[in-house]
UniProtKB/TrEMBL annotation:
Source taxon at top rank: Archaea
InterPro entries referenced in this protein's UniProt entry, alphabetically: Aldolase_II/adducin_N_sf, Cro/C1-type_HTH, Lambda_DNA-bd_dom_sf, ThiN
PANTHER family, alphabetized: HTH CRO_C1-TYPE DOMAIN-CONTAINING PROTEIN (PTHR40730:SF5), TRANSCRIPTIONAL REGULATOR PROTEIN-LIKE PROTEIN (PTHR40730)
The protein's name in its UniProt record: Thiamine-phosphate synthase family protein
Pfam families documented for this protein: HTH_3, ThiN
Length: 298
């Protein structure tokens, strides 16, 4: 695990200080004066000025860093800028470079797994793709922990297996839905989760969720279990609106028709069809909520 702040400390800070120390010395400030302005020792200034510190060439050549250094050097030398003002100016540029820019690129090189998310991202942005995706994965893991610790759950796993899924806020395909690869199975009377959750591995349950969302549901998560009238009644007693759909119509048409009749339904079910096993789908805001709803209804 390597934080972007470590990249700032290890790559940006030595480069920036070296450039700024040299620029201040070029403006005829003494090493002591430079040390006071930068809040570092004179020996550190000497190392920066004499290129005894490794710098990052990409940052050293970046026009924004060069412009920042020159602006700060002029302001600090002329007295128009205080060290605090210089710090604020530098922080602004650092945040810009973290927003899917060169510092983010250096971070991705240090943590290759970040490349899985593609495109530019901002680690500190609460709405960044990375953070939202990781939150969805963590949410499904919490939901799976509930399933695994509910022994009674195993007998409600259908023959086709169970899956617990959660979609990203703007999901429009199964690639935007977290699920369990291979589905949850009944292993000697206990629910068994075969692998860590990931994106794009559920077709049927993810499709039910996406279809529900496309037809007005604001649910972000879904869990399927075998149809059981007593379980359905328990879910209704806990406050869920339920609606049946015609399995023979297919998921898209059947779920659409059902939600048209009962827009607020949090439980969608079908009692079987030609070659189709009867299933209950519990919908909700997140994976732990739907897993907890089934656990409490058992």
């Amino acid at each position: 695990m390597r934080f972007i702040e470590e990249v700032v400390v290890d790559e940006f800070l030595p480069t920036f200080r070296s450039m700024l120390a040299e620029a201040l010395r070029e403006r005829e400030l003494t090493q002591s004066e430079v040390a006071d302005l930068l809040g570092i020792s004179q020996s550190a200034v000497s190392k920066y000025v004499h290129s005894e510190v490794t710098v990052n060439e990409r940052l050293e050549d970046d026009e924004r860093v060069v412009e920042l250094v020159e602006r700060l050097a002029d302001g600090l030398t002329g007295g128009e800028m205080s060290p605090v003002q210089a710090l604020v100016e530098a922080e602004v540029v650092i945040r810009q470079l973290e927003q899917g820019d060169v510092l983010a690129q250096l971070h991705q090189e240090a943590v290759p797994e970040l490349a899985e998310y593609g495109g530019a991202f901002a680690v500190h942005d609460p709405d960044s793709d990375v953070r939202i995706a990781e939150q969805a994965l963590a949410s499904v893991r919490r939901g799976l922990a509930i399933v695994e610790n509910t022994t009674e759950f195993a007998r409600h796993i259908p023959a086709v297996g169970t899956n617990l899924v959660e979609a990203l806020p703007d999901a429009d395909s199964i690639e935007d839905v977290v699920a369990v690869p291979g589905r949850i199975i009944d292993l000697k009377g206990r629910p068994e989760v075969p692998a860590e959750p990931e994106f794009g591995v559920s077709e049927y349950v993810a499709n039910v969720l996406l279809t529900a969302r496309a037809n007005g549901s604001d649910a972000r998560a879904a869990l399927n279990v075998s149809y059981d009238s007593s379980l359905l009644e328990a879910l209704e007693a806990s406050g869920y609106d339920t609606v049946e759909f015609d399995a023979d119509q297919g998921v898209e048409d059947g779920v659409a028709a059902a939600l048209d009749a009962e827009p607020n339904a949090g439980v969608i079910y079908q009692t079987g069809g030609f070659g189709l096993e009867p299933i209950i789908y519990v919908l909700g805001p997140d994976a732990p909520t739907v897993a907890g709803a089934v656990r409490d209804a058992l």
